[in-house]
Amino acid sequence: LTCDPVVEGVHFTADAPAPAVGRKAVARNLSDLAAMGAVPDYLLVSLLVPDGCPPARRRGVLAGIRSAARAARCTVVGGDLGRTPGPLTVTVTAIGHLDGGVLLRTGARVGDRLHVTGPLGGASLGRHLRIRARLAEGRWLARQAGVGAALDVSDGLLLDLATLLEASGVPGAILEAGAVPIHADARRLARTTGRTPLAHALADGEDHELLFTVRAGTRLPAGGPLAAVARRTIGELASRRGLWLRTADGRLARLGAEGWHPDV
Amino acid sequence: LTCDPVVEGVHFTADAPAPAVGRKAVARNLSDLAAMGAVPDYLLVSLLVPDGCPPARRRGVLAGIRSAARAARCTVVGGDLGRTPGPLTVTVTAIGHLDGGVLLRTGARVGDRLHVTGPLGGASLGRHLRIRARLAEGRWLARQAGVGAALDVSDGLLLDLATLLEASGVPGAILEAGAVPIHADARRLARTTGRTPLAHALADGEDHELLFTVRAGTRLPAGGPLAAVARRTIGELASRRGLWLRTADGRLARLGAEGWHPDV
Fold it and tell me: What is the pLDDT of residues B83-96, one digit of tens each?
């Protein structure tokens, strides 16, 4: 069971195409199911429409929701259409089931290798409206022995990693600077922000790739849905407290658990 | 499964006590479960907080949600806390199970007697913040033979009755003017609006009493939770198209399916 909203002015701008807004509202929640290895079944939709919102925009959002539901083979079974004096707000509840395994945030251990299913950073340039929930990957991972913990990168790699560590009672993690996969969008964004592409990859969020741990010495089977994604080993969980970055010359730099956090 | 929002400026005013807002957000959804005869199990809560909202108000809303959940013996199992540039918005998803029967909107037939579990009208004077979901009543009704269809009076008796008729494919209904139970709040409100207390009872909404039909000739068992409420037979379903009011002198007056509709 999962329930996440998208709000105009927070999760999308007024010029975002309505169907993309609907698809994002669904995909955020499907990504939460993916992070548990769950299979989506049903969606509930609460759509709050501002006074004066053109009916075409409302219909566009609903069309986007339906198309995203169809693509994930789940069904919109209920919800509510209401008005608000505030911004367009779409709250989707997703209900799924487990199928032979489960991924939790609590299963990581010191020594686990840290993996991510794809490149990170710069999602705000537009990818945040085209979230692809890693459903097949999560379902597959949930069935493999040796997978420790998992979640989806929504608030930013460092912040989500800190969440995973805290949930699992693991003191820290060491990331390999050269191993964190950097999305081309992070490089593009870095040109205008003056920050490094790596900083964007570590902190931007809304990537919705799966971040997961694998026991040291365990080799996941070849093939399966992970073969098709740019899965990377990006570091390991450590008994040393805090988040650390190992640079090319082998030195450890302390990182804050910062990230772009859309929520309060 | 049900999901309904409450929005500041639509479903409550800025001066509504925060715990009452939380309780209302839960009760609206519990009332939807009650109308199906379901037993509540789990709640998900999406709380969208405006910038500058005092933390005490946010905590008050959450406290109200928890107390309402406790009272209904269900559990908040997840959700999301986010920010909004708009008004305080609380969207609750409720998950319940059926227990030996179900109430649907689709089961009414011509000839059914129409009942309501309590007096109607004037909820806007304050009762709308103290919704008491008729859970025990719904659960009991769902197990009785001869109950046709049911829903909860949220948008107003006439509008909800029209919804029930449409869902059941019944052409019309005749209400007895002297039988519709009028809440004292409807009489109080009528003094300031210039409308009649009956008009308020028929159209105001947010009463969250159960409106249900019983087959002609069926007598529900005495006792049970309905013995404790002011259940009234208020009319019957008819083959004559539309909503009609039978006045004391036996004449039929046509009614519109109007009601206060908080939603678009």
Answer: 999 999 999 999 99
Distances (CA, A) of B113 to A178, A186, B161: 74, 66, 12
What local confidence, expressed as pLDDT, does residue B259 receive?
Answer: 47
Residue keyed to tokens 């037993």: B39
- Chain B CB within 8 Å of residue A260 CB: no
Is B154 within 8 Å of chain A by CB? no
Stretch A92-113: mean pLDDT, rounded?
97
Contact A250, A137 (CB under 8 A): no
A1 at the B interface (CB within 8 A)?
yes
Mean pLDDT (whole number) for A248-254: 91
Please give, rounded to a whole number of angstroms, the shortest distance from the CA of A75 to a CA of chain B: 13
ipTM of the complex: 0.88
d(CA A197, CA A154): 18
Contact at CB, B82 and A262, closer than 8 angstroms: yes
**Cβ B263–A44 below 8 Å, yes or no?**
no
- Yes or no, beta carbons of A86 and B84 under 8 Å apart: yes
Q: What percent of chain B has pLDDT over 70?
A: 97
Tokens of A129: 């409206």
Sheet containing B113-116: order of strands: B147-152, B210-214, B113-116, B232-238, B172-176, B242-246, B252-255
Q: Indicate the pTM of the whole model.
A: 0.90
